[in-house]
Structure formats: structure tokens, C-alpha cells
Amino acid sequence: MNGIVILGCLLAVQSVANGKEIVRFDLRDLLRRDGLTVINRLVEPVPDPRMNGLVLSEEYGEGLVWINGVSLSSGTIEVDLKGQNIFQRSFLGIAFRGADDSTFDAIYFRPFHFPSTDSVRRSRCVQYISLPQYTWQRLREEHKGIYEHVVDPAPDPDDWFHIRIVVRNDEALVYVNNAESPSLRVHLLSDRKGGMIGLYTADRSGGSFANLTLETEWPLHP
By C-alpha distance, which of 176, 157, 181, 151 is closest to 165? Predict the structure, then answer.
């Protein structure tokens, strides 16, 4: 199976252009109409209505917001993120190929490392994990420098930044603020070929998410 499968998603605008299917999600209305499954977080609309986004609260443990009825195998995920420059308190990104609330892949950012002049901290700006087996601790210990990387040029840690995650077959490429070269390129470690997609925050972290878009080659279905 390649692409995106949408089953009963309440508010998504789909279009086809240049052989690609593009799906734009109205996150604010999805929240209002129970189109999201929220795990271990409180969720509110972003105060600025132009952003069409959500704010997740800071809580202990990991937080997820699954998009109901959406499954992604291969495609491109785009979203705007806003964390904060507080050490060890800002971890946010995208979960994908999810099987349940504890079994998924994720790519997330540590904005508090963006402005650091320390080379070790800067090398940990963006991270890939595949839970429950491949945590960031295990990957850092067993595969140093492979599944986390610097973001250069670094965004403002307290401002919005744009990410594009290209998931294709068994790899993912991560682009930040429309850069031509990826900040991270990894081999995906799970054996799942598709699954749920959602917003992700790690322990003690909240964050803001806006303008979620999925894109895949046409046709969507096998």
C-alpha cells in the first residue's frame, strides 16, 4: 500500500495537482468536532486563528494527538511547529506509522538546542525514534550521530518553524524551513508499512502545531 487512506476524517480538504494528492487538515475544527484522539494532553486552538493550529499542554509522559481515520504509508508530511527555549522542556514533532499509543515512529525537535554554541547539543536538534523498542536513549548509545542531527541554519527557538518529512518505503528525510538539503535522513527501524499519524510531544513538553498537510503520489489506494 502506498499513500494516504482517509476513513471518516471529519474535516480534510483533498485536491489533486501534478499527479499528487494533497490533504489539508483543519485542526481547529477537527478538535471542535471530535475528529482527534488526544492522549495525555490538554488541547486548545492556537490563539492566532490565521495559523489553523493547536496548542498541547505540558504534562509528564508523552503526549499524542492522533488524526482520526487517517493512515499514512508513504508520503510527505508538512507542519508548522512552535516550541520554546527552555532546556529539557521542549520536544515536539510528528508521530507516524502508529499501531497504538505506545507503538509508533516519530520525528521530533529540541528547540532549546537550536541557539546552542556547544557542538554536542547542536548535534541533537532533530531526533528519530521508533517506540517502544528504539528509544532515543538506545539509539544514542548504540548508533551515535545516526538518528539525531544538527539543524543548520537553526530556527529561532521561540518562533514558528516549518518542517517537511518525506516518508518513502523504509526511509525518512527531514527538511526544515524549506531547506534544499535534509537535516536528517534515516532508515526506518519498524517493520510497519503504514499506520496512524499524529502530533507528538515528549515528557514534560507542550507545543504548538499548525497547517498540517499530507501529500502523496496519486493514486492513493492500491
Answer: 176
Instruction: Kindly list the distances between the CA atom of residue 38 and the CA atoms of 35, 129, 210, in Å, as whole numbers in the listed order.
Output: 10, 20, 16
* Weakly modelled stretches of the chain, pLDDT under 70: 1-2, 4-19, 217-222
Q: Which helix (H) or strand (E) holds 138?
A: helix 136-142
Residue-range domains of the chain with CATH: 4-217 (2.60.120.560)
Coil, strand or helix at 141: helix
Amino acid letter, residue 147: Y
pTM over 0.85: yes
Over residues 69-124, the pLDDT tens digits come to 999 999 999 999 999 999 999 999 999 999 999 999 999 999 999 999 999 999 99
State how far Cα 77 lies from the chain centre: 8
Contact (Cβ atoms closer than 8 angstroms) between residue 19 and residue 217:
yes
